[in-house]
Amino acid sequence: MTPKELKQILQALVEHGVSELTLETPDYKLTVRRGGEVQVVSVPQVQAPILAAPPEVPAPTPPAPAAPAAGPQPQAKAEPQDDCPGCVEVRAPIVGTFYRAPAPDAPPYVKEGDRVEKGQVLCIIEAMKLMNEIESEVSGIVKKILVENGEPVEYGQPLFLIQPV
Amino acid sequence: MTPKELKQILQALVEHGVSELTLETPDYKLTVRRGGEVQVVSVPQVQAPILAAPPEVPAPTPPAPAAPAAGPQPQAKAEPQDDCPGCVEVRAPIVGTFYRAPAPDAPPYVKEGDRVEKGQVLCIIEAMKLMNEIESEVSGIVKKILVENGEPVEYGQPLFLIQPV
Amino acid sequence: MKKVLIANRGEIALRILRAAKELGIKTVVAHSTADEKSLPVLLADEAICIGPPPSGQSYLNIPNLLSAAIVTGADAIHPGYGFLAENATFAEMCREHGITFIGPTPENMRALGDKATARKVAREAGVPTVPGTDELGSVEEAKRAAQEIGYPVILKASAGGGGRGMRVVHTEEELERAVLQAQEEARAAFGNPAVYLEKYIEEPKHIEIQVLGDGERVVHLWERDCSIQRRHQKLLEEAPSLLPEETRRAIAEAARRLAEHVGYVSAGTLEFLVDKEGNFYFIEMNTRIQVEHPVTEMITGIDLVQAQFRIAQGEKLWLKQEEIQVRGHAIEVRVNAEDPEKGFRPSIGKVETLLFPGGPGIRVDSHLYAGYQIPPHYDSLIAKILAWAPTREEAIRRMERALSETVIEGPGLKTTIPFHQKVLQNAFFRRGAVYTNFVARRMEM
Amino acid sequence: MKKVLIANRGEIALRILRAAKELGIKTVVAHSTADEKSLPVLLADEAICIGPPPSGQSYLNIPNLLSAAIVTGADAIHPGYGFLAENATFAEMCREHGITFIGPTPENMRALGDKATARKVAREAGVPTVPGTDELGSVEEAKRAAQEIGYPVILKASAGGGGRGMRVVHTEEELERAVLQAQEEARAAFGNPAVYLEKYIEEPKHIEIQVLGDGERVVHLWERDCSIQRRHQKLLEEAPSLLPEETRRAIAEAARRLAEHVGYVSAGTLEFLVDKEGNFYFIEMNTRIQVEHPVTEMITGIDLVQAQFRIAQGEKLWLKQEEIQVRGHAIEVRVNAEDPEKGFRPSIGKVETLLFPGGPGIRVDSHLYAGYQIPPHYDSLIAKILAWAPTREEAIRRMERALSETVIEGPGLKTTIPFHQKVLQNAFFRRGAVYTNFVARRMEM
């Protein structure tokens, strides 16, 4: 659903005095509640509630052909920063294997809750036997580590959420 | 479900004074509740335009494949009664050739402006050498003859517009 | 031939339209009001509405169809399959009105139209039919006949149909009792106790031979195996069959001879049952193009619908029998708008997402497009998907690949694709152990 | 081989995916962020993002691609065409990492990689190349060479390219002046006055031979005529060519010999120019699967991409030369997202309405689906539509029919289909009068 489509839906809600709407499709679930029906009518701040709290606009879903039967369907990737407003995502700049520590028996570079400085090493990604250190782009608190140790990561995959301080 | 479809549903709710709706299909589940019906009615200015003049719901247009280049595209057939509100259409009940008169040199059965009675012959349709007389289903004034003499007509093709009296 | 009226709908109307376009013949698609937005109508040079949705008033409406041909200036009619395709009267009326009927002659249809006449013609041509008797006068007569035919035999009600009154008998000991029971059942079911006896063919293959004739000479285009059926409805067809080469040749030649015997014109199919020993029995002839004709087109490279057009224009057969070479293996699945999980219940609706398979060896014949509303008035065939490959095993894997990338979706719309996927994975199917009761026995459906 | 990483995008990624599926090999599609919602990604068993949209950082990013193969457990990489397909270093690195590169060996690529080396190899194998000289020392040398080669000849700048400094000379009288002018032009354009001389081939056909090799033995799969080009971009290909049978055989055998001479592995194509007298000259070899490979697949029934997989798994060639039989005629049109009315300007956008052709003899290779947004970062090929029929004339009519029912529409989206329709209708094309300057000369484009 595009923002434009959402806007059309919301306009329709206002026009029609709808106070609550739940819409679930295979692609999305939409819930809208509009308070103060009376105000809608009696005062001109008709669209205030909507303007004040625009529902989150979901990423556009591809009108993608589904591989039927067992065909795998790429999941709409969850956007991790939804869980942590204001957080900065550290994404994988290369493809490889994610390691939290410089060696199997070494302690991890960082844990959730740690304070890190800009330029501090957060993890390594091994690609073709080379260990690539991934540094933090900001100073802040490690709010979440999104990948398990030893897991493969693709280009652009979110690795950490860091709350800048 | 497209926003347009949703809008149409909501319009329908307003028009029919529905205050709550739950709709579940294999593809989606829709729940709508409308509050403040009374207000809608008591301050009619707000939604009056919609209630007063529900926009015409267009016929579903086929998302039809266009034969590119020279491929002919069937025209959305104009609805002849648009020109003559209240008129009755006389449609071809069979496929054949339309003739306005019983013989090439005879006068036509009817002309535009003529008054006709129910059961009166309006034209003939020749099909496989048989002359089929087409009678008027109503008494009224022939407002429009929609087919030229000698033209082929298909099943259901509008032939005359008659204003009942 | 300048312009053809296509007196049919759905995928076969589109198939005919494609053949006509490639031959430079203009097309008029006759359609009911329910098919106004169908793909053949959208792609045709002209379209003409010939009646309301019920086929009795449209696709079977002879006066409107002939009239439609006349008023649009069409000099030929292609009837497709079903509807009026095997109606000798319609073919005759076309002839009377100077319109070329693209198909066999009315005489061909009459000679082969009903099973009894067709069996007689087959015997004249020296083609074996299922051995059987007329109505049985007595148990003794039944015993003599059964001995001659050889067990097992099947008793059938003369007035019957649909399995009622049928009884399979394996030994002479069972026969007397079976005749009496069958007569009793026949009386109860049809009010007529008469029964007759036929050789019972266990687990037969349904093999059909495609022929093309010009009225004098007939060539065959080898066989199709149509054993994968459910309640006598074909679901998946393939060619060539897995029968031994000499059996294949013998059946094909018998079919060719039979069709030549009646001076057959146009494309036709002769159906046979083949038992485990390779004995074959002619059952009936379909005097029309068939749903599954593309299977043969894929292995021979010959366009059967174009051939129908050329023969109808009076062209003498341009093919010699020895020029018709089979290459590789082809499989067709019939994609029906039916729910195989609910007893193949028709499932109509609007096609919202559509993606057909492509790539090497794939052919799709379908009148679907995204946004198309499947009308509830007609049969449920919505697409034929075909896969060709050098070998059967490769064709099966290619078909599996093709079905895995096919998307036909809409609210509430179900198709038979999951069923076909199960057939293709079935171990018996994969090793070619197919017979007419395959679906019932091996898939328990 | 259990799992293949497909290091490409668009229709060829889908083509490889289909071959792998049919062989029971799992697929991983490596893709840039721009191709996240592409059809190959949606249909693959797995997908892995290997970089941002610019191909230098994704589809040409060797470390990320190798790493992607390693982390997904792929034991093979198929490079498709373009990108890294002919990169010997990449093939070598795959080998070093124990990953099977599905294509020729690095040694094959190096032996045939650049034109000069390839010409040398060709001469060793006794395959004719375009006769020519090294840098000319004097006008006298030019005269002697031209006499030996035979007029007309063409002068080319050693440092040049793209037509600058080129000069066609028809008689000895013109030669001196032409050499001086060409030298002057070369100096002005490239800062180097050196020129050389080559036989000028007037209106040549561009003929290429498809081969398959296993490192020891090579078979050819006959030729394709790729003369319909615009600015050296192929637009329409067909097979077989209209050359006389003996010329076809001679070229095909020369190509086979050359490829066998270098111990060629996998699928490859040898390009030739053929003059009006049927003389042929090897130009270069493409050491990869080519865009137009389906043309050959349609006439031979051989799946070239599957063959690449089988050869890469070490299988010895299972085909004898005499088993490779040509049936019928096939034509491919490249449907590009370009506006032929505006100088073939790329035209990107979202595909809203999509309807591909079907029915007999049609093949479509395309990664489009309704709703797909064509990304602006890559080449403009969006579909290959192929038509097969028993004869060239029928294949042309079938292709016209197929294009007439194709719909690829979206806001602002233009395709080359109208251009192809004009080619197909062109009287010179229809009688086979095609050569590399056909589009410029006969279509004035």
Write the layout of secondary structure elements.
The complex is a heterotetramer, with 2 copies of chain A (165 residues) and 2 copies of chain C (445 residues).
Chain A: H1 3-16, E1 18-24, E2 29-33, H2 37-42, H3 48-52, E3 88-91, E4 96-99, E5 115-116, E6 121-127, E7 130-135, E8 140-145, E9 152-153, E10 158-164
Antiparallel strand pairs in A: 1-2, 3-10, 4-6, 4-9, 5-8, 6-7, 8-10
Chain C: E1 3-6, H1 10-22, E2 26-32, H2 39-43, E3 46-51, H3 62-72, E4 76-78, H4 88-96, E5 100-101, H5 106-112, H6 115-124, H7 139-149, E6 153-157, E7 167-169, H8 172-190, E8 195-199, E9 205-214, E10 218-230, E11 233-239, H9 245-261, E12 265-274, E13 280-286, H10 293-300, H11 304-312, E14 329-336, E15 338-339, E16 345-346, E17 353-355, E18 362-366, E19 381-389, H12 392-404, E20 407-409, H13 417-425, H14 427-430, H15 438-442
Parallel strand pairs in C: 1-2, 1-4, 2-3, 4-5
Antiparallel strand pairs in C: 6-7, 6-8, 9-10, 9-12, 10-11, 11-14, 12-13, 14-19, 15-16, 17-20, 18-19
